[in-house]
Amino acid sequence: MRQDADPGLFGPDSVTWQLHGDPVMWIAGVRALFLQALHPVAVRGVVINSDFRRDAWGRLLRTADFVGTLSYGTTEAAEAAGARVRRIHRLLGVDDPELLLWVHCAEVDSYLSVVRRSGIALDPAQADRYIDEQRASARLVGLDPDRVPATTGQLAEYFRAVRPRLTAGEDARTVDAFLRRPPITPALVPARELIWRRVAALAYNSLPLYAHQLYGRPAPPPDTVTYQLTAVGNLLRCVPARLRWRLPPGHILKAMARLGPAARPAPYKLRSQAAILDRPGRAQRIDGGDSTRWRKPG
């Protein structure tokens, strides 16, 4: 890696760097939206202030741009992106720390849950390290990092504490219906039915059991969903990485140009580290939101 280049908030040695370039992050992002909608105060702010029903794909790409900037951009770019988000939150009056914490935890939990269940093996120490790293992202949206969960155990405790406040009210059902069938131009209807409907269904199915109960819509057994996530993850990873990374705005390719080819993100780098500490042939998976974990003997 080029020693004089800025590695950004996390850098190539972080868990975040290796995970956030994986294609299942798109499924994880949709899962996060389903989960976030269950907080009645947070989702009310989204419904009132957001243009998601008129500009669904633009909003999705802006969110991906923000996550990509924080994950792979320079420190200056990440700080500037965080400042813009904090300014928007203040203008819209949605800068309540409790709500920001819910959004943060739902996102981080979704990212970690989906990537692990899709076949990326992280040992417990690496999972904790990822949660801890994400406190840097929490700071940029206006949270005090010391008040943000730093381990999977703390994250699970947060969800246990907040769960009684969650409900699938009218606003949550509006988001649910939108995510399942977003409005698009007639020419794109076949793509929505062929691709998006399956992505949204898999994202919903990967939610924890209590979320399915609140929405009132069952999902397949957890082991079946884990199998599906692994199959989809393996299929998506067959697409050459450099082709996937050309999706706008190309943060990973820019980071590699800045830092050198050794900065290429690859989950196998984490697997190599974990193999030193764990027996071979064992995969660890997590169903987020309640920290339930499956171990599958090799």
Description:
The chain is mainly α and 298 residues long. The protein has helices at 15-19, 25-36, 40-49, 56-72, 75-92, 97-117, 124-133, 135-140, 152-162, 170-180, 189-205, 209-215, 222-236, 241-244, 251-259, 268-277; strands spanning 283-287, 292-296. A two-stranded antiparallel sheet has the order 1-2. A hairpin with a 4-residue loop joins strand 1 and strand 2. The radius of gyration is 18 Å and the shape is globular. Residues 276-288 and 290-298 have low confidence and may be disordered.
Measured by DSSP, the beta-strand proportion falls in under 5%
Count of individual helical segments: 16
| Span of the ends, CA to CA | 35 Å
Mean of all residue-level pLDDT scores:
88
Biggest sheet record: 2 strands, antiparallel
Sequence of strands across the biggest β-sheet: 1-2
Provide keyphrases for this structure:
disordered C terminus, 61% helix, mainly alpha
Question: What topology does this entry show?
Answer:
Layout: H1 15-19, H2 25-36, H3 40-49, H4 56-72, H5 75-92, H6 97-117, H7 124-133, H8 135-140, H9 152-162, H10 170-180, H11 189-205, H12 209-215, H13 222-236, H14 241-244, H15 251-259, H16 268-277, E1 283-287, E2 292-296
Antiparallel strand pairs: 1-2
What is this structure, in a nutshell?
The protein is mostly helical. 61% of the residues lie in helices and 3% in strands. The protein has helices spanning 15-19, 25-36, 40-49, 56-72, 75-92, 97-117, 124-133, 135-140, 152-162, 170-180, 189-205, 209-215, 222-236, 241-244, 251-259, 268-277, and strands spanning 283-287, 292-296.
